[in-house]
Design a protein that fits this description.
transmembrane, AB_hydrolase_1, 8-stranded mixed β-sheet, 12 helices, membrane, Rossmann fold, AB_hydrolase_fold
């Protein structure tokens, strides 16, 4: 009898253990499913291609209307469509506006989910006045360029190299090249500064850029959060999603690290009221830079508002920077 009771007790313990193991396995599988689905949703929201419509002139205020009218004019002006193959085979497209043969060339990179014509209004106007040439490019997964995934600087920094190499080959090594970008485009050009750029790249101009996309996501993830998702969960999903579904690691692209290893002169333009990419990021990049460097802080300017707040100062600092570095 005692032996039977003992056997029953052992059997009950065994059943309990099996139940616990089963529950653990189910919870593990459930967690994997949640992580997989959640990371996929967050990855799609952050990185997957999304066609962004041009802003509507009919709903624009006076300031926006004037800006967008300029952008539409630029789009319609005579230009040459340029198509290149990125190092990974992605077709990238840009539009070249020639003002004067053999003049300095500014290759301009727009912001995240924006358009080169819209973001490129200031540099186009400055270039026209100074008789420089401009190449307004569409970054991968934007507008006419191919690609379904935007890698937040990881692959785009190599696209900068591809564009610069194309320009050096097409126009000749004697043509001075300047890389310029705003917001995400600004981060991308600084992230490319330590790569194998042609010797004809004479300077890099960063407007409203940032240190890393990881920090930008941490600071601004609330706007990307699916309804009801806690911030910490979003960070986990974003990190896993980018690595799992995108196949890249945001740690590979770091503006501070890049500028600490470059010899190319850097100009940083930033607003002291920038809440998206705070001013301290611009200062970190400036302090990390080991090459010739300048920083121009626009008082009262929010994110990517530097030209709007201080058009004269903006034009002067860029014009001086380029003229001083043209051989």
């Amino acid at each position: 009898m005692k032996q039977r009771v003992k056997q029953l007790a052992i059997t009950e313990k065994s059943v309990k253990k099996k139940k616990i193991v089963a529950v653990v396995i189910i919870m593990f599988i459930f967690s994997i499913i949640i992580l997989g689905v959640g990371s996929k949703l967050v990855f799609q929201k952050i990185c997957e291609r999304r066609e962004t419509a041009w802003p509507d002139l009919g709903t624009a205020d006076d300031e926006q209307y004037e800006w967008l009218t300029e952008a539409y004019k630029i789009k319609q002006k005579n230009n040459e469509k340029i198509v290149i193959l990125a190092s990974d085979g992605t077709k990238l497209e840009g539009h070249y506006y020639e003002r004067k043969k053999n003049a300095p060339l500014v290759i301009f990179f727009h912001g995240f989910r924006s358009h080169s014509y819209v973001d490129g209004v200031p540099i186009y106007k400055i270039a026209q006045k100074e008789k420089w040439n401009v190449l307004l490019v569409s970054m991968r997964a934007h507008d006419e360029s191919e690609g379904n995934i935007f890698t937040l600087g990881v692959k785009e920094r190599y696209d900068c190299v591809d564009w610069a190499n194309w320009a050096a080959k097409h126009f000749g090594r004697e043509t001075p090249i300047f890389l310029m970008g705003i917001s995400m485009g600004g981060a991308v050009v600084t992230m490319s500064s330590d790569l194998d750029l042609p010797d004809s790249v004479c300077g890099i101009i960063e407007d409203s850029g940032f240190t890393t996309s990881t920090k930008m996501l941490e600071l601004n993830c609330k706007s990307s959060l699916p309804k009801g998702m806690p911030v910490e969960v979003f960070k986990i999903f974003a990190d896993v999603g980018i690595k799992l579904w995108g196949g890249f690691d945001l740690k590979e692209a770091d503006a501070c690290k890049a500028v600490s290893q470059t010899k190319i002169p850097i100009l940083i333009i930033h607003g002291d009221m920038d809440n998206l990419a705070p001013l301290y990021m611009a200062k970190e990049i400036y302090n990390s830079c080991k090459s010739s460097k300048e920083i121009y802080i626009v008082h009262g300017a929010g994110h990517a508002e530097n030209y709007k707040k201080d058009p004269e100062g903006y034009e002067k600092i860029i014009t001086t920077f380029i003229k001083e570095r043209v051989p």
